[in-house]
Structure formats: C-alpha cells, structure tokens
Amino acid sequence: MKKIYAVLFTLVSSMTALAAHAAGGDFYGGAGYNINTFASGARIFGGYTILKDKWELAGRPVSIAVEGTYLDIGTGSINTFVKDHETGLFATAVGRMRVADNLDVFAQAGFGQVQAKLTDNFYGTSTTYTGTAPIVGVGATYTFMPHVGVRTDLERYTGEYESAVVLAASVVATF
Questions:
Q1: Into which CATH architecture does domain 2-174 fall?
Q2: What is the pTM of this model?
C-alpha cells in the first residue's frame, strides 16, 4: 500500500510541475480525506477543464472537465473476524457551475474499478474481488486564495461486490 501512495505522490508532483507551465488554470488536482458507511481513507484526484465557461445556466457560467480519482476507501469490519479493505480508481466527467465569485457547485458521473480485499483473521485467509462500478456525485468548491480552495464531495458507487456512499473533504489547487 505504501508503494501505491509513493507512486501516486510522484504522479501528482509531476502533474503539478507540468501543469504549472500551462496557462489559463485548466488543470487542477488535490488530495483529501473521505469517510463512508463503514470506514475512512484518503483520496487523490486530478483533472483538466476541457470547456471552460462555454455555456450559461440561469445566468451562471458552466464548465466541463474530465477527472481521475484514486480512493483508498478504507478498512472496515464485516464481523468480529472478517475485515474488508476497498480501493477504487475512477474516471469521471464533471459539470461545474459558478454560483458566486469564490463558489462552484458540481455534479459528476463516470465509472471505474473497485477492489475489495476480505481478510478472515480467524482462518488466516484472504480473498480479493475486483469489479467495475459506476460512480455519481455532487459537491462544491470554495476558493479562498487565487489558486487554492477546499472541496467537498458526496459520491456513490455501486460495484459488483461492494457499494458505498463516500463523503470527502479535500484541498484543491488549479494551475
């Protein structure tokens, strides 16, 4: 698991360095903490705004982005002996609308791969299930510095073996 975090950190650091040279603030990335119905974990995400303020809805500018997210959904207990650890890698389309100078709301939909590892501490066995899962979500981003903000997400994914509702808080930066 530590190798995954090291690779993700390196990937985000590289993306940040490359995105810093891009003009217009079309790239964004962030990291945060999520909780769900049985556990808590970390998240890391990055995206690119492909259509920035191209439309208006109720007089407010609307943007479209593509985003990739890695979720460490966390480890929870199914019963006294069995633990469940889930991770997911998702690709989503994000529709974002500016509702105030520093506040955006968004909705997202996409799909990804979820892995659930069940460990039975009584028998000393483990089983891993991997499947695809659609994901939908809503959220808001409040920008408190020119390129830095906080973001909340409420997401639901439903996989072949597992499903969860995830609430997250993250720091996000635009480049």
A1: Beta Barrel (2.40)
A2: 0.80
Under the banding of pLDDT at 50, 70 and 90, the label for residue 15 is very low
The Cβ-side half-sphere exposure at 27, using a 13 Å CA radius, reads 13
Extents of the domains making up the chain: 2-174
H-only helix segments in the chain: 2-19
Tens digit of each residue's pLDDT (9 = 90 or more) over 131-143: 899 999 999 999 9
Close Cβ partners of 63 (under 8 Å, ≥ 6 residues apart): 49, 51, 52, 53, 54, 95, 96, 97
Amino acid at 119: T
CA–CA distance, 39 with 22 (Å, rounded to integer): 37
121, 145 in Cβ contact below 8 A?
Answer: no
Q: How many of the other CB atoms lie within 10 Å of CB of 174?
A: 19
What digits encode the pLDDT tens for the residues 38-96? 789 999 999 999 998 888 888 899 999 999 999 998 888 777 788 888 899 999 999 99
Backbone angles phi, psi at 8, to 5 degrees: -65, -40
